[in-house]
Amino acid sequence: MGQVSDRWAVELIGSEADQKAWHILLKPPFDPCVEEIKYQHGDYLALRSSTFDGIATSAEVHQAAKQLFATLNVTMSTLGDTDPVTNGAVVEFVPDGDPKKDHHVEITGISIRARAGFVDITVKDAKGRVRDPPPAPSRAQLWMRATALDPEIGSALRYLRGNPGWLELYKAYEVVRSMPNRGIPTSEIKRFTQTANAGERHHPNDKNKPHKRPMELWEGRAFVTQWVSAAIDDILAKNP
Question: Which is deepest, 33, 97, 169, 199, by most CB within 10 Å?
């Protein structure tokens, strides 16, 4: 992914804890990144991304942001234990003036849950002095880089948003099944496909027989997430 857009950003809407996690894991100058915007009516956080490069209008930025946030929410849920954050007003940075906010209203729901909080990691040297680690993209930013290198990864991640059922899990599996899976046993792949095909996808029949030890839904979600993660690692290894 290239440099983040100099013109556009999108306001984050979500709980304070989730916005903090985005701010910590999506740091500039890496793409995408979250920045704090100073505003006369109250400071706020906004997402900047190269996805917005070359876009002419705020309405187009809003449409592009919806897919970007859908992918990021799955990434952040997996890596940062966050609930969904939604795209708010489109922010336009103008020369010699305060950023302008353009609101695009959509009806969305945000679920809030308790969590232990986000842990900041402090690195110290042999003498106990705090050291600032060299700038590097976070795991979340690397995952988003993988979606730019292979858009199919973004498709697989979006199938996993929310609380995916067997139908969505199988669609994600279809996207990544030809990609490396970091050694998932063939027996587990068969167990997954038989469970999915005898569940929401098809009624059990002679062709789609239930597995003698079907997966629980949580196991299916973990199985597909592991495969997607392995595919991402392979893409990143091939494109350092």
Answer: 169
